[in-house]
Design a protein that fits this description.
Length: 110
Amino acid sequence: MTNYQLPNISAEDAIAALNTSQPPVLIDVRKEQARGAIGVQGAIWINPMTLDHQQASAMPRGSTLIYCVHGHEVSQFACALARIHGVDAKYVIGGFAALAATGARMEDFA
């Protein structure tokens, strides 16, 4: 049996990619109650409780980074669903917590 590993990226490499001339699309799939009033600047929020095949198929086809709170089940599910629909998606290891600790630019959306 082959053990499949979803494509992923470290928070440090994600921030470096976001600071390039052609940054990837950044998708925040934190649950609504976990979002609070702050997020990574430029991220598109998709409510993971309503994420379905139709939304995943509408995601941009280019490089896409997906994060949840800690980079576990929620972002990995979203990443897998996006990849099923041809999106070049990776999930961020450590999620929002790692991005914030690494110095990602934040924005207040309250």
